[in-house]
């Protein structure tokens, strides 16, 4: 090999290395971000779409018909049912490729995206350590011996730092058995012993007030091993719960889209 050839190969190698560095630092994240398309079906009443880097809450029934006979990844009660074709009437119905009906019981959730979404199989655990719950109750002048109608904690690594965060939910909504002064709902995350509020509601005591908090799915929407999640608030007197898609960003929870 003569010196000229060595110089050429050297230059080509340098250009390739520069190109790869550029692609890794600028190109690849942008390419994923730019072309990302997501459709989330939350139960049978809420549809969220992500197009051109924007979320929207789709309510037009004509537009929803566009998903008829489209394939979705379907989940029920946080467990994968499979990938099936959907058809909409007053709700979503699932069919296999031969148009045999597939029964989907429980909390329905489905998504379609032009990339694979990681969905975390969360579990709702009994709260064994009441330290943080009591701290939040005290801050809001609610007695710490209050009875709950629902209380649980979900543990997962929300932000990919190899340490688990705890998401707590407590409420006394729809309580007929106890005489409490206020109806309350608190949902928050604890990370490094610090409390980050997700949802708070305090109302006068009334059977119709309050919110029963529950989660539909924890989803890695950004493909960055960090989780966004769908949170719902069941209301006693309203058919459709409040539904919100949350993201933990810059040390606070932000609502990306909701059905409100
Ligand atoms: Ca973490």
Overall number of strands: 17
Structural class: alpha+beta
Euclidean distance between termini CA atoms: 70 Å
Tell me, what's the shape? Answer: globular
Mean pLDDT rating: 90
- Major sheet details: 8 strands, antiparallel
Tell me the fraction of residues in β-strands, as a range. 35-45%
The helix count comes to 3
Cα radius of gyration in angstroms: 23 Å
Instruction: Order the strands across the largest sheet as they lie in space.
Output: 3-2-1-8-4-5-6-7
- Helicity level, as a percent range? 10-25%
User: Which compounds are bound in this model?
Assistant: calcium ion
Show unreliable segments: 27-32
| Number of discrete domains | 3
Series of H and E elements: HEEEHEEEEEEHEEEEEEEE
């Amino acid at each position: 090999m003569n010196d000229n050839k060595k110089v050429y190969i050297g230059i080509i190698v340098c250009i390739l290395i520069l190109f790869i560095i550029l692609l890794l630092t600028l190109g690849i994240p942008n390419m994923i971000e730019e072309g990302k398309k997501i459709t989330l079906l939350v139960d049978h009443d809420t549809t969220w779409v992500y197009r051109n880097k924007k979320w929207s809450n789709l309510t037009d029934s004509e537009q929803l018909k566009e998903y008829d006979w489209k394939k979705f990844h379907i989940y029920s009660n946080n467990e994968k049912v499979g990938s099936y074709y959907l058809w909409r009437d007053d709700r979503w119905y699932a069919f296999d490729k031969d148009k045999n009906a597939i029964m989907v019981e429980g909390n329905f959730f489905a998504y379609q995206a032009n990339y694979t979404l990681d969905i975390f199989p969360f579990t709702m655990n009994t709260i064994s350590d009441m330290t943080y719950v009591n701290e939040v109750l005290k801050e809001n002048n609610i007695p710490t011996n209050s009875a709950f109608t629902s209380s649980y904690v979900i543990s997962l690594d929300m932000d990919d730092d190899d340490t688990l965060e705890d998401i707590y939910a407590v409420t006394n909504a729809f309580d007929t058995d106890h005489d409490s002064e206020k109806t309350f709902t608190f949902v928050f995350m604890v990370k490094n012993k610090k409390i980050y509020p997700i949802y708070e509601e305090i109302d006068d005591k009334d059977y119709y007030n309050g919110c029963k908090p529950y989660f539909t799915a924890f989803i890695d929407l950004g493909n960055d091993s960090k989780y966004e999640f769908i949170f719902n608030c069941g209301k006693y007197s309203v058919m459709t719960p409040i539904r919100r898609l949350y993201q933990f960003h810059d040390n606070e929870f932000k609502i990306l889209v909701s059905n409100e």
